[in-house]
Automatic annotation (TrEMBL):
Transmembrane segments: none annotated. PROSITE patterns: GNAT. InterPro entries: Acyl_CoA_acyltransferase, GNAT_dom, Ribosomal_N-acetyltransferase. Residues 42-195 form the N-acetyltransferase domain. This is Acetyltransferase. Gene3D superfamilies: 3.40.630.30. One of its GO terms (molecular function) is protein-N-terminal-alanine acetyltransferase activity. Keywords: Transferase. It comes from the Bacteria.
Length: 241
């Protein structure tokens, strides 16, 4: 739902005024820590071996089907790839370090960074089997959202994926993103055409989504076997209501 439009002197509908808006800062190259994981700008000497080993625990290469890189047959090929990630400022790639083991077990990035309009996208999400379906994996998403909205004051946070990537679309819905539609013939990658599914969270939606994440991540939400008592999507929906 959007606000009712304002009208200008010509009786034309226009968007809400933002008289105090100022461009936001670029995301910093600094760590972000949580209860279960820490996000660190990728450093090849510190993270590449851990990441390669974590990705190597997958039984096959299907996790890379919808990614622009990978899979990687050996450490040298991954090291060369990680070196490019570390040198990039947009996308700004982060390693996800599991605080229990101290090992990097996945990556994600802030990208298409638009400080003038306060818009940023999370992308290049590459979770190893050691990170999938874990508290750290969910917390990593929350930490990057919190940096964008609470620390930097951005207005819009985007998620985009191949429209055929069903797991990514389910993840976006679970994290509280709103589906906005399909951009047809948007990208050519891996020698094939991609229709792109667009999702977003706005700053007005963020407080409720943040409460849902905090409730899901709390120790009280997990039983003695480590199973969550309430699902993230349900908690976000309740917070929105």
């Amino acid at each position: 739902m959007t606000d009712a439009p304002n009208f200008n002197d010509y009786d034309q509908p226009i968007g809400p005024a933002l008289p105090d808006w100022k461009p936001r800062a670029q995301p910093p190259r600094t760590p972000v820590s949580g209860r279960y994981c820490r996000l660190e700008p990728i450093d090849v000497e510190r993270h590449a071996k851990d990441l390669f080993d974590a990705y190597a625990t997958a039984p096959d290469g299907r996790d890379w089907t919808y990614m622009s890189g990978g899979p990687f047959p050996d450490f040298d090929s991954y090291y060369a790839y990680a070196t490019k990630l570390a040198a990039s400022t947009d996308p700004l790639h982060h390693a996800i370090v599991d605080l229990e083991t101290g090992k990097a077990v996945g990556t994600l990035a802030l990208m298409r960074i638009d400080p003038a309009n306060g818009v940023v996208e999370v992308g290049h999400v590459a979770y190893s089997p050691l990170l999938k379906r874990t508290r750290a994996g969910t917390e990593a998403q929350y930490l990057l959202m919190r940096r964008a909205f609470d620390e930097l004051g951005y207005r819009r946070y985007e998620w985009k994926c191949d429209s055929l990537n069903a797991p990514s679309r389910r993840a976006a819905a679970r994290y509280g993103f709103t589906f906005e539609g399909i951009f047809r013939n948007a990208i050519v990658y891996r020698g094939r055409s991609r229709d792109t599914a667009w999702f977003s969270i706005t700053d007005a939606e963020w407080p409720a989504i943040s409460r849902g994440f905090e409730q899901w991540l709390s120790l009280e939400n997990f039983d003695a076997q480590g199973q969550h008592r309430a699902g993230l999507a349900a908690l976000i929906a309740a917070a929105r209501a």
